[in-house]
Specification:
The chain has 976 residues and is mostly helical. It is built from 53 helices and 4 strands. Among the domains are: 79 residues, no CATH class; 66 residues; 62 residues, Serine Threonine Protein Phosphatase 5, Tetratricopeptide repeat (Alpha Horseshoe).
Length: 976
């Protein structure tokens, strides 16, 4: 059985695996391959070993501050990989995480804590009044009323107390006379209104530089050079403030100050807050476009939000839970602008677009949700999902989304709902099937994920270009099975306008992986091939497209065309092991076994661990009669893939062919253990059991094979054979009936049914079965021969001879037909012709003991006693335990008067078959002729005891007993 015939459509994972086996940097290097397959696991192990080495010299503390900003992937890695490494607990290694949110809010951290109790939580502590007094005394503030005012303002929070320390150290006097004044007023003490405004503008920025501050001040009609003070421009003044820090080459307010100033702006004037974020969104959007090459057409992208917003209102229903395709406009879809994929290839564009999305979400812009979803789908499809993940994580790090008052309620609800689709976009949008357990570990319930999908897909009708195509392709993965084709057709139509020769790699992959493979999975092979052809048009040397095209053509039975595609695949990628393997499969299907074998060898050369190629190589070798080599190939396949039930089954077939039946059964058992529904292994197992004569076990296995595959007529047929062997003739006939019902034109089953009917004594029905077999296959010599045997039982000798003649005509060397013909001729009294038939049978099969015996009988009847004895001798030589031949030899010797030799032959016959009454009787006759009364009577008594009715009457008149007839013992035998 060929495995992977053809091998699966090429996917990204398979391409990576192929490259690992073929690339010079990784070929044969298991450690490096393991690193590429599981980089997180292997790199974490290496990192842990490095920490352990350090910890053996002195304790190690790892500190991660502002942990609320950590990406979710880092959080998962830290919990599941780093802290999940049990070796760390045995060493002085500690990890300190400082952030706004509790670690135990997510399920995977809670599970780690439950299993291993590794997390110690310490909430932020405030100083109480005595602690505050003590701290202030240390920095020179001792006046009790001032200490009381400071405590009331700062509420004992360390950040604000430290800020007071810094201000006091610079000699600046702070006024706390207003008692419970807002902390923002404290931080702004000594600043004028424009400086305060400048700080609020900076607080709206995640980071700022000189150009950004200048742009913001200009938009507020503030002079950049003189707004802050007479000596510094706005930017320089900001960089000198205590709560401004330089992080990764960018200036920013520290988190606490930013929160305070930004909140103060929102509380003072919300519209101005939204306006400033709108200005920032416009700035970064413009900056993003300036980062692109001048000749890049992004007009469609720039208009995306405005165009789509017109259609937004009808797509916000929360009720539908089943995603159904929207009807496509009959003509208008071709006029939609096509969003270029090129901008996503430019990192500066991506980073500035992420800033644009961040700020736009703090506005009232009607189209921002659609724009965000558009980028979510497009960036996820292109693998550039940081475009949406960066702004989303930045916002979620600032506060809990559902409670974040700086967001307007619509955007707050929007971001809260789509959170799973952003933070786990692969699992939610792409992965098939959805891994609910993994998502639950990330803190997302099934209901949250479904709500996110519903929200995201509610915008599909208003999307355009790449975003719309991506949305349709993701909707295809999440729809009901009956709707898949409709969604795929829509995706195909939306994909065509966004593919261009200028973006040949993107275009070819779109048609290959997204559209072509989906058509293939839905069984639309012709459509899949059309898409693979389009992929090849964009990229003629795309080996994966040629490979997938070959797979699809093979499925359509177009083997020659499939082979040509595989040839192209290996021409463009000579190391493409899967293509070599599938090329071998195609060649095998064309009967070109030697060439197929060469292809499998190529596949194995590029990847010695390719279990499929080893298995298929074994199949080819088996067909070439190289059974031992085939077995070795199957062993290799199993070594590389011990759970390969097909290789185990094939191994069993090879072993059975080598006569190693017990080992074959063990292989079939292994195949069945791996896959209990493997009907081929069950079938082969019962055949092996039959070969061992374990008929009862074979019958039970047939029942299992039939249960697994009740439409396999061959299994029903073979079960019939096993039932015949078990003597269950009625059940055997019923089994053949089932096989015939499944395949009425199977001549062999009709023939087998005839044999079972003969055994059942239903001769007329048997003849009818043979007639049916012959009608289906007129050249079936065995059916003609079997028909003759049945006709003999009906005493229709002439018809029987005609059947034998037909069998001989079809197969002149069919020795059984010659033998059976001789028997029929003998029964008709045509002894000379019978001799000729037996002689022909013996000529064809010199070791045919039954033919030698029957030839002896016919020669005896022709009076050729010496020749008859010679025939019997030959039969006995071939079969020393042939009791009938010994008996017949005795009769011939008796005829020649060679009584002693005759008695010796009868003795041999009786020794082999003690109840052979003919031999006992004839032996008694010999002793009667010799006047040996005692032995004559003794042997006659044995014959009469076995068959009294026959031999009492026969002995009364048999002249061989004339010499002893007067003996009272002889007479007594007839009066019992």
């Amino acid at each position: 059985m060929l495995r992977n015939a053809p091998q699966a459509i090429a996917s990204g994972k398979e391409r990576v695996e192929s490259l690992l086996q073929q690339h010079p940097a990784t070929k044969g290097k298991q450690d490096i391959q393991s690193l590429v397959r599981e980089p997180l696991l292997r790199l974490t192990e290496a990192f842990v070993q490095g920490l352990i080495q350090k910890a053996q010299q002195r304790p190690v503390v790892l500190l991660l501050d502002t942990y609320e900003k950590a990406p979710s992937q880092l959080d998962l890695w830290l919990c599941n990989y780093l802290l999940g490494n049990s070796q760390l607990q045995s060493y002085p290694i500690r990890l300190v995480l400082a952030g706004r949110q509790s670690l135990l809010k997510t399920q995977y951290w809670r599970k780690l804590q439950q299993d291993r109790n590794l997390v110690y939580q310490q909430p932020l502590e405030r100083f109480d009044q005595p602690q505050t007094r003590e701290y202030l005394q240390q920095i020179g503030i001792t006046e009790s009323e001032q200490v009381e005012d400071i405590y009331q303002v700062t509420r004992g929070l360390p950040y604000y107390l430290d800020w007071i320390r810094k201000e006091t150290a610079t000699g600046r006097e702070l006024n706390f006379s207003q008692g419970n004044q807002e902390i923002v007023e404290l931080l702004l003490q000594g600043l004028n209104s424009t400086q305060k405004q400048l700080l609020q503008l900076a607080a709206c920025c995640r980071w700022f530089d000189k150009a950004l501050i200048q742009q913001l001040l200009n938009a507020q009609n503030l002079d950049f050079d003189s707004t802050a003070d007479d000596t510094d421009n706005g930017f320089d003044w900001l960089t000198k403030q205590d709560f401004v820090e330089l992080v990764q080459h960018c200036y920013r307010l520290d988190d606490v100050a930013r929160d305070v100033f930004r909140l103060s702006l929102w509380q003072e004037d919300r519209e101005r807050f939204y306006q400033i974020h709108g200005l920032l969104a416009d700035y970064f959007e413009e900056l993003a476009h300036r980062k692109l090459p001048p000749d890049l057409d992004v007009g469609a992208f720039a208009q995306h939000g405005a165009l789509a917003a017109k259609h937004l209102g009808n797509n916000l229903s929360e009720k539908p839970k089943v995603y159904t395709p929207n009807a496509l406009p009959s003509q208008s879809f071709n006029t939609y602008p096509s969003l270029s994929t090129e901008p996503y290839n430019y990192p500066d564009w991506c980073s500035n677009t992420a800033e644009y999305l961040y700020h736009a979400l703090f506005t009232h812009r009607r189209n921002i949700q659609l724009t965000f979803i558009s980028h979510l789908f497009a960036s996820r499809y292109l693998g550039k999902y940081e475009v949406v993940k960066i702004p989303f994580q930045a916002i979620s790090a600032e506060a809990e989304l559902k409670d974040y008052q700086l967001l307007n309620s619509t955007n707050r609800q929007f971001l809260t709902t789509i959170q799973p689709a952003v933070e786990s976009s692969w699992e939610v949008l792409v992965q098939e099937p959805i891994n609910w357990e993994s998502l639950a570990n990330s803190g997302f319930s099934e209901s949250q994920v479904k709500a996110a999908l519903h929200k995201c897909f509610s915008y599909t009708a208003s999307l355009e270009g790449l975003a719309k195509f991506a949305a349709l392709s993701y909707q295809l993965r999440r729809c009901l099975e009956l709707q898949c084709l409709d969604w795929l057709q829509q995706a195909k139509l939306r994909g065509e306008p966004i593919t261009t020769p200028a973006e040949s790699e993107f275009s070819s992959k779109l048609f290959l992986f997204t559209v072509g493979n989906e058509f293939y999975e839905l069984g639309k092979i012709e459509d899949a091939i059309a898409r693979y052809n389009q992929a090849i048009e964009f990229n003629p040397d795309y080996d994966a497209a040629w490979y997938n095209r070959g797979v699809a053509l093979y499925d359509l039975g177009k083997i020659e065309e499939a082979l040509a595609s595989y040839d192209q695949a290996v021409e463009f990628n000579p190391d493409y092991e899967q293509a070599w393997n599938n090329r071998g499969i195609a060649l095998y299907s064309l009967g070109k076994i030697e060439e197929a074998l060469a292809s499998y060898d190529q596949a194995i050369e590029f990847n010695p661990n390719n279990d499929a190629a080893w298995n298929n190589r074994g199949v080819a070798l088996y067909d070439l009669g190289k059974i031992e080599e085939a077995l070795a190939s199957y062993d290799q396949a199993i070594e590389f893939k011990p759970d390969d039930e097909q290789a185990w089954n094939n191994r069993g077939v090879a072993l059975q062919n080598l006569g190693k039946i017990e080992e074959a059964i063990a292989s079939y058992d292994q195949a069945i253990e791996l896959k209990p529904s493997n009907d081929a292994a069950w079938y082969n197992r019962v055949v092996a059991l039959q070969n061992l004569g374990k008929i009862k076990e074979a019958s039970a296995s047939y029942e299992q094979a039939i249960e697994l595959k009740p439409d396999n007529e061959q299994t029903w047929n073979n079960q019939g054979l096993a039932l015949v062997e078990s003597g269950k003739l009625e059940e055997a006939v019923a089994s053949y009936e089932q096989a015939i019902e499944l395949k009425p034109d199977d001549a062999q089953t009709w023939n087998n049914q005839g044999l079972a009917l003969v055994e059942s004594g239903k001769i007329e029905e048997a003849v009818a079965s043979y007639d049916q077999a012959i009608e289906l296959k007129p050249d079936d010599d065995k059916a003609w021969n079997n028909r003759g045997l049945a006709l003999v039982k009906l005493r229709k000798m002439e018809e029987a001879i005609a059947s034998y003649n037909q069998a001989i005509k079809l197969k002149p060397d069919l020795h059984q037909a010659w033998y059976n013909r001789g028997n029929a001729l003998y029964n008709l009294g045509k002894v000379e012709e019978a001799v000729a038939s037996y002689t022909q049978a013996i000529e064809l099969k010199p070791d045919y003991d039954a033919a030698w015996n029957n030839l002896g009988i016919t020669l005896y009847n022709l009076g050729k006693i010496e020749e008859a004895i010679t025939s019997y001798d030959q039969a006995i030589k071939l079969k020393p335990d042939y009791n009938a031949a010994w008996n017949n030899r005795g009769a011939a010797l008796y005829k020649l008067g060679r009584i002693e030799e005759a008695v010796a032959s009868y003795d041999q016959a009786i020794e082999l078959k003690p109840d052979l009454h003919q031999a006992w009787y004839l032996k008694a006759c010999c002793y009667g002729l010799q006047n040996n009364i005692d032995l004559a009577i003794e042997n006659l008594q044995q014959a009469i005891q076995i068959n009294p009715d026959k031999y009492r009457d026969m002995a009364k008149t048999d002249s061989d007993f004339d010499n002893i007839r007067s003996d009272t013992r002889f007479q007594a035998m007839f009066f019992k």
